[in-house]
Design brief:
Pfam families: DUF8212, HET. With 666 residues, the protein is of the alpha+beta class. 20% of the residues lie in helices and 25% in strands. Strands 2-1-4-3-5-6-7 form a seven-stranded mixed beta sheet. Strands 12-13-14-15-19 form a five-stranded mixed beta barrel. Strand 17 and strand 18 form a beta hairpin. About 13% of the residues have low confidence.
């Protein structure tokens, strides 16, 4: 590992943290947009050596102030992740990520730098120790430390292990003033982020908590890279993985598979599965650690109260003379303990299976609040039946796909192999079954990639050529989708098979609120001209209301041909509203939607291709009906009108997209 000297900010190598005789400090922080790297600090050292300067006075403010604070606390060395890891070396980066929990745990002190918290916002109503001695309730502490608890620092994935691992942790403000320690704020942190106070005070090891409980501490934290959702948890679970940036969410699946191999704790599968697609929630493995957020408690049904976390509590093996029931339940041919093995089709599990009135349950030795909890299963209709002779199940989720568990009756005796479910006593049988571990693979559409967060936009084949009549590229489509999203709209490309065979339409974009048609007029061509690039003057476009849309209705050449629009731009509008009474005057409440179609020569082929951009806006106004006389339009029976004559009744034209260009009704 590399450490910075606090007096000069020089980098020095050490074999391991234990080799730092006088100990070292560590910094936990949220990365800024620009951070000085290992190479930057080395270049500063070389330049300062020539100029006779102290590198600490030249490095960025964060590194300098951290070195100064650590030095004032008696430390000669400090570890900062931004500049103490040579990220140009993949081997060193992988070693650092797998060792980072140890780096923080062995640091003599760790500073949690909260760049968004000012020391002046922290109340001076006594020190934290005074508050504790006076037994002031949490409300006063919460008020005093609300700025700390609301810092963005608590929303980053990497800071979780940086909070748990160190023995002595200081929160410092944006001006590097010491504010508090994690031990002082332990109760507040447990209340706010569900991390046990005993863990933060090092009264109990974090390893004493179940897998699902430790996963739940991740909460709603975010990481810049998806892979880091798994990598930032390695130290908390004592797992070592090869880092493969570019694998996306597969990293978290690899972490879960490693936990299966290392631990018998089956709460790895106890994630609720709320608010995710059924294909994902019915799988045994979770897609991300955020899915465990609610594992600090569970609500088995709407009518029952919240229950404590699900724990892994395997049955205790007793002597034959003390419990003959267990002997009858245990087999004589094969040891009865739960096992899991990974296969391409799923996880092969050997475990107790319970069947009651066609419903299937699995006993993974879970308890919650003193009651046993079973995992709900069902046959997977998409299973490859030919792949294995074993039964193939998936997780059976309830309302909103969660949580997939069932709590046994209060009068359940807790005897192995005997279960009281909904007033009936049933027994289990040990079986080998396959359980779906991830969403079933599906056929991707052309150009579609897995593990992509943005909506997939299918390619339009005609627009992939060198010089099509027009292009509507993905960047412009995504911009339009962002504008439509608050109003319930989106963008879908209609299948060309739905158009008439003799249609001159090139593409139709269904935006739910309206449709956009783009075509190439066939009028004016010579009989022998079959080229799609005869003239840009033949490209036409229009926006139409979604209700009553009919692609068979032909376009209007004078109105729809793009080259006839000033600056190749046109605004299409819709007025919608209903009657109301406002200030004793009859009024109409209107919403005005404006769709602006803008074309420009495509940079790739400016003489033969037009590039399309679309903007959408929606404005709301209350329009007195008495003003109809001033406009000369009866806007009551027909709200879909050319709005040019009544523009004064809404915002000024300068506020609307496409101002100064022609408008048309949808």
């Amino acid at each position: 590992m590399w450490l910075l000297s606090t007096d000069r900010a020089d980098l020095h190598p050490f074999t391991s943290p234990e080799d730092v005789a006088d100990g070292y400090a560590a910094l936990s922080h949220v990365w800024d947009a620009e951070e000085q790297s290992f190479q930057d600090v080395q270049m500063i050292r070389e330049r300062c050596a020539k100029e006779g300067k102290n590198p600490r006075e030249v490095v960025c403010g964060k590194i300098r102030r951290c070195c100064q604070l650590a030095e004032s606390h008696g430390y000669k060395w400090v570890w900062i992740d931004t500049c103490c890891i040579d990220k140009m070396s993949s081997a060193e980066l992988s070693e650092a990520i797998n060792s980072m929990f140890r780096y923080y745990a062995l640091a003599g002190i760790c500073y949690g730098y909260l760049r968004d918290v000012s020391a002046t916002t922290i109340s001076q109503q006594g020190t934290d120790s005074e508050l504790d001695r006076n037994e002031v309730d949490l409300d006063l502490q919460r008020q005093r430390h609300s700025a700390i608890l609301g810092s963005i620092w608590f929303m980053r994935g990497w800071t979780l292990q940086e909070l748990i691992a160190p023995r002595f942790f200081l929160f410092v403000s944006q001006s590097w003033d010491v504010m508090s320690t994690k031990a002082d704020l332990a109760e507040l942190l447990e209340e706010t982020y569900s991390i046990p106070a005993a863990v933060l005070r090092l009264q109990v090891s974090h390893t004493e908590f179940s897998i699902s409980q430790r996963m739940s501490w991740f909460g709603r934290r975010k990481t810049t890279r998806r892979e880091d959702e798994a990598y930032c948890l390695l130290g908390i679970f004592g797992i070592h993985l090869t880092t493969l940036y570019g694998e996306g969410r597969s990293a978290f699946r690899r972490l879960q598979e490693a936990l299966m191999r290392q631990s018998t704790d089956t709460t790895l599968f106890a994630w609720p599965g709320y608010n995710v697609a059924l294909a994902i929630s019915s799988s045994l493995l979770a897609p991300s650690p955020s899915e465990f957020t609610l594992c600090s408690y569970f609500t088995p049904s709407i009518l029952t109260p919240k229950l404590p976390s699900i724990l892994y509590t395997p049955p205790t093996r007793r002597s034959p003379s003390r419990n003959h029931a267990i002997l009858r339940w245990l087999p004589t041919t094969r040891p009865k303990f739960i096992t899991f093995s990974m296969y391409p089709y799923g996880i092969l599990a050997f475990l107790p299976i319970i069947v009651l009135k066609g419903r299937i349950f699995a006993d993974l030795y879970w308890t919650s609040g003193g009651r046993r909890v079973l995992l709900c299963l069902e046959e997977d209709p998409d299973s490859p039946a030919h792949a294995s002779p074993h039964p193939f199940y998936r997780i059976r989720r309830g309302l909103r796909h969660g949580p997939g568990f069932t709590w046994l009756d209060d009068d359940d005796r807790g005897e192995p192999g005997r279960y009281a479910i909904r007033g009936q006593v049933v027994h289990a049988s040990w079986q080998e079954v396959l359980i779906k571990h991830q969403p079933s693979p599906h056929r991707f559409r052309p150009g579609q990639l897995p593990d992509i967060t943005t909506a997939f936009i299918p390619p339009v084949t005609d627009q992939l050529t060198l010089d099509p009549p027009f292009r509507f590229d993905d960047a412009h489509i995504r911009k339009l989708m962002r504008e439509l999203a608050p109003h319930g709209g989106t963008v879908q490309i209609r299948d060309a098979k739905s158009w008439p065979a003799d249609s001159d339409i090139l593409a139709v974009y269904d935006c739910r609120l309206f449709n956009i048609e783009v075509g190439q007029c066939r009028q004016g061509r010579s009989s022998g001209d079959h080229s799609r690039h005869a003239s840009l003057a033949q490209v036409w476009a229009r926006a139409l209301r979604a209700d009553g849309y009919d692609s068979k209705v032909g376009h209007d050449c004078p109105e729809d041909h793009v080259t006839r629009w000033p600056a190749l731009q046109k605004t299409f509008v819709t007025w919608q509203g209903k009657g109301n009474v406002y200030d004793l005057q009859e009024t109409k409440y209107f919403s005005r939607s404006a769709v602006v179609l803008s074309f420009a020569p495509c940079p790739i082929s400016p003489e033969r291709t037009l590039s399309l951009d679309v903007s959408f806006s929606k404005q709301e106004r209350i329009v007195p009906l008495v003003l109809q006389a001033e406009t000369g339009h009866d806007i009551t029976p027909n709200p879909f009108l050319d709005v040019s004559p009544i523009t004064p009744l809404s915002a000024s034209s300068a506020e609307l997209p496409g101002a100064g260009h022609p408008t048309a009704s949808l």
